[in-house]
Amino acid sequence: MSLLKRIKRSVTGSSQTSEKKLAVIRSKNKETLTAFDPQNPPPEISARDVEILKECWKIVQQNVAEVGIITFVGLFETHPEVHDAFMSFRAINTSDLEYNAILRKHALRVMGTVDKCIYRLDNRDKLRELMTELGIRHKNYSVKIEFIELMGPQFISSIKPHLETLWTDEYEGAWENLFKLMCYYMKKGMCSI
Ligand code: HEM
In this structure, are residues 185 and 135 in contact, taking their beta carbons and an 8 Å threshold? Predict the structure, then answer.
């Protein structure tokens, strides 16, 4: 069994059901990949979206490590090229143990960024600054711009099971809008250097 499958099984108890969901997400991503134009205005997030995001985040925060890892393993399984790019940043002979630790660390960092953005929704200038600078650093890590927007759909599919009783299309839209905004500024930063 591959290391990714083992990590996923250790977090979820099974790898079968989420594999099916991930296949759907991959085809969605293929349809929605679009060229980035830094001249476009930032995507909008309504006051209702902000309310929904804060309500959801209180619940998701209780399982932050699990959601982060599932997001990343899902992203790597559906898009092996992202996995290769991520690991090429590291020494070639990274052991399983080190690899697992790197994956967890990045997953937690992404979750930490989502946390910061949710609290910066009340101060959009700070959100812009945070994500633009993160984008510049990702350009320096040689991450391709088109990889950035792959994170949102995986993240949304990882939080859904924790919010089953609340989830509606409106909730999904609020999370999509948050990731659109985060990715917009990250990509803007990547294009700026
Ligand atoms: C919404 C998307 C993403 C967020 C919020 C995010 C967040 C972060 C954060 C907070 C760090 C810590 C270092 C720093 O602040 O500069 C980091 C590092 C890094 N990220 Fe991301 N990231 C995202 C997407 C990606 C993707 C798609 C890749 C694909 C290859 C990637 C590859 C890396 C690499 C190689 C590092 C280098 C440092 C390390 O391994 O610690 N990131 N990311």
Answer: yes
Residue 63 belongs to a domain: yes
Residue nearest to atom 7 of ligand 1 (CA): 110
Is there a domain that residue 143 lies in?
A: yes
> What is the residue with the minimal CA distance to atom 41 of ligand 1?
106
Count of domains observed in the chain? 1
Domain span at residue 79 reads 46-191
Of 178, 154, 181, 150, nearest to 56 by C-alpha is 178
Asked if residues 114 and 54 have their Cβ atoms less than 8 Å apart, the reply is: no
What is the DSSP secondary structure assignment for residue 149, as one 8-state letter?
A: T
Asked whether 143 lines ligand 1 (CB < 6 A), one says yes
C-alpha 25 to ligand 1 mean position (Å) = 21
Domain assignment present for 23: no
* Minimal-distance CA residue to ligand 1 atom 22: 110
pLDDT tens digits along 85-143? 887 766 656 677 787 788 888 889 999 999 999 999 999 999 999 999 999 999 999 89
- pTM for the full predicted model: 0.85
What's the CATH number where 53 sits? 1.10.490.10
